[in-house]
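In the current project phase, the collection of sequences with tokenised folds has grown. One resulting record follows, to show the layout:
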Amino acid sequence: MLDIAEELHRWVEQGRDFAVATVVAVGGSAPRQPGAALAVDADGTAIGSVSGGCVEGAVYELCQQALQDGETVLERFGYSDEDAFAVGLTCGGIIDILVTPVRVQDPARPVVTAALATASAGEAAAVARIVSGPSDLMGRALLVRPDGTYDGGFGAHPELDRTVAAEAGAFLDAGRTGTLEIGEQGSRCGAPLTLLVESSVPPPRMIVFGAIDFASALVRIGKFLNYHVTVCDARPVFATEARFPDADEIVVEWPHKYLERTEVDGRTVLCVLTHDAKFDVPLIQLALRLPVAYVGAMGSRRTHLDRNERLREVGVTELELARLRSPIGLDLGARTPEETALSIASEIVANRRGGSGASLTGAHTPIHHEATSTSSPAGRIGSVA
């Protein structure tokens, strides 16, 4: 739901009734991950997607039904060997979808409204909703903020809200969306409830060091991948808005000095395109000791070997050097700045998603690499279809 927060927030401000279908869990080769959503308003307007097209028609009808009867339902769609053209995921996956009405009179409307406003403003928040459990709890929601405060609740045992808030806070800290099971009274005992926790966090950061022509192309593709992109270079003549109109931020400062003072986290990617030892060595020395997702450095293989020796001389260990992606990018045979940017972005995505970077043609590896215990319908939610 939070992945289409801006559009849904406009619907709320316009006073529209709508139903939202959210992917709860997936198995196999399902095209969308938990949290992906499709919403339908009372006039039949639809936004978002839950399957890339496989089951959109059936989910659309479920949303219309939810608007009529006010009932929250959980449905499972899966591949059918007997009839591959029947409603289902012909790619071989399984997908569980929660359909919730969000009408003006519905009790969860204020919580959903607050969640959509927070997410659309780019602020961090998590929303927990009952997926399976007593019918009177279905559709209820709880909004959790980074400081641990929360709005809404489930109107059941008082300990339930506090436990869900704590668990959802852990999901929010990690920027995760998925399911969890909690006892109906807020403990691990008693009748189990399954909840979907959706996290909305600010976009991850991409910091591009080196204001060169290749950097301009990388900024554009970084924005396409929904990164908050910063360009940093010590040379003011090159680090300008005119050269990097798509960047969110341009910093004129020695790269390692900027990296020392700026905030990074486990989702941040650092792309070093300067290939100049006076910039690269102090910058990469620091970068390899930070808890970031990716550190890549541009340069020829000769530059790479020389740079590694310089890094060893200043105390960088072999274990730290093993984190460095250099020469940066995947082997696509890239030559132009745009092709090189695609090569770099491909390596970043493969690193993030656990892909090999190999061609899928003739391979026997999974296409999607994010199936975990929190997103496996077979292990978390009983069959509902």
Notes: The longest strand covers residues 18-27.
